[in-house]
Amino acid sequence: MQLKILLPSRIFAAITHVKRIVAETATGQYGFLPQRLDCTAALVPGILSYETTDADVVYIAIDQGVMVKTGEIVVVSVRNAIGGAHLGKLHEAVDQEFKLLSENEKNVKQVMAKMESSFMLRLLRFQEH
Fold first, then answer.
1. pLDDT at 87
2. Which CATH number do you get for residue 69?
3. What are the CA-CA distances from residue 43 to residues 53, 87, 88, 104 (Å)?
4. What is the pLDDT of residue 123?
5. CB-facing half-sphere around the CA of 86: CA atoms within 13 A
6. What is the pTM of this model?
7. Cross-referenced InterPro entries, in alphabetical order (predicted)?
8. What pLDDT, on a 0 to 100 scale, did the predictor assign at position 104?
9. Domain count along the chain
């Protein structure tokens, strides 16, 4: 298989000769082999692993995203990814960095909701006058 990991701003990795891929979804871990039927999967923050014919298992910490398998091509599109570290350190990275980003996004969404409601109230007051 061919595996391509995409981030919003760049291609994180493009790997050929992949024998198997294991990814985490909201309902558990799933393995993908070359003969598996075409499918899509919503990924949660966690560890994606793959094995090539030339190397051992490689682990990459990924943020939430989507995986699409079409024939021999697997495309993973995620917001963030970290590779090249020991498996234990990747789990720490997922806990620290990705969950921190999620908290920051929640805070931004709360602020945006407050700004939108304030804008709507001012607009209503303006229309009344």
1. 74
2. 2.60.15.10
3. 25, 18, 20, 20
4. 79
5. 3
6. 0.70
7. Alt_ATP_synth_F1_esu, ATP_synth_F1_dsu/esu_N, ATPsynth_dsu/esu_N
8. 66
9. 1
- Residue 58, classified by CB atoms within 10 Å of its CB into exposed (0-12), middle (13-18) or buried (19+), is middle
Mean pLDDT of successive 10-residue stretches along the chain, which has 129 residues: 95 94 91 90 90 87 92 94 75 69 69 80 79
**Buried-exposed string 36-57: b where 16+ CB fall within 10 A, e elsewhere:** eeeeebebbbbbbbbebeeeee
How many other CB atoms sit within 10 Å of the CB of residue 94?
20
pLDDT of residue 90: 75
Sign, CA dihedral 107-67-7-49, equals positive
List the beta strands (DSSP E) in the chain.
2-6, 11-15, 18-25, 28-32, 39-43, 46-52, 57-62, 65-70, 73-78, 81-83
The sign one gets for the Cα dihedral 17, 19, 12, 39 is: positive
Residue-level pLDDT at 120: 79
Amino acid at position 124, single letter: L
Range(s) of the domain holding residue 18: 2-128
Residue 112 — φ and ψ, nearest 5°? -65, -40
